[in-house]
């Protein structure tokens, strides 16, 4: 059997460009060379290209191919590892669908919906055992009366871009005096902003993937941040947060969490691997949904690779299962 040509799509149009490159580097290192010819394609606003030994080679977007040494290379599969637009919000998925090229993520509809935190919360509402924080969604074009926000929700509040990726533009505010600056910071990232009541508790993240046709829930990770909350700096700077995989949870709690995240995966029609972030309040231990991430980070230190290793799987096998299973189930 000849090796498949894999387009590993990295980069993107957001501040997470460098994070995406780290994810791509780790994925490429863990894809078996006997099975896959891996070509890392960098997606930028003005150019899509492959960095060959002889310099950059532009992608022909008409059929998603490249010319190397006079030969045309077409791709059997696209492995998307772009955080934010256009790889996480459905744009690339729609393009690949039109060309009939399979890929590793959820489809265009699910990708677009899950990038919108408010829409996602509405869709998962009603799942047995799942709770969501009270919130308001604001649009940049509308007037924002901080007094109305303060009267509607209980402080402290989280202010975050509704379609943001990696905690960029997020703030935690304790009183009405901090609201205006926090809203401005979030609106710099997106024209929709989510204002949400802060839930005190332990923060967790858990991977879910369909492997060999079966939905598989990976071991959960507990995130303990020395900062007030798990923002971009805490997520990507060494030493600021502690990540414990597998998390210290009872077998009963793990079973309940697995049932909830499986239902989230099914209800949102997810494909491939996703990561669900949630909080367990200190007093009630109820499951509070934060968000679902459909292109979770894949650098060596990222949460999904940690969880795959904790489950006793190799990353090579995990990525291979995602590629071979895409489109079948």
Topology:
Elements: E1 4-11, H1 17-29, E2 36-43, E3 48-52, E4 55-58, E5 65-68, E6 71-74, E7 77-80, H2 91-99, H3 108-115, H4 117-124, E8 130-132, E9 135-139, H5 146-152, E10 157-161, E11 171-173, H6 179-187, E12 192-197, E13 201-211, E14 214-217, E15 221-225, H7 232-236, E16 241-244, H8 251-267, E17 273-281, E18 287-293, H9 303-310, H10 315-325
Parallel strand pairs: 1-2, 1-7, 8-18
Antiparallel strand pairs: 2-3, 3-4, 5-6, 9-12, 10-11, 10-12, 13-14, 13-15, 13-17, 15-16, 17-18
Question: What would your notes on this structure say?
Answer:
The model is unreliable at 230-234 (pLDDT under 50). With 329 residues, the chain is α+β, with helices and mostly antiparallel strands. Strands 8, 13, 14, 15, 16, 17 and 18 form a 7-stranded mixed β-sheet that branches. Strands 4-3-2-1-7 form a 5-stranded mixed β-sheet, covered by helices on one side. The protein has a 4-stranded antiparallel β-sheet with strand order 9-12-10-11, with helices on one face. The protein has helices at 17-29, 91-99, 108-115, 117-124, 146-152, 179-187, 232-236, 251-267, 303-310, 315-325; strands spanning 4-11, 36-43, 48-52, 55-58, 65-68, 71-74, 77-80, 130-132, 135-139, 157-161, 171-173, 192-197, 201-211, 214-217, 221-225, 241-244, 273-281, 287-293.
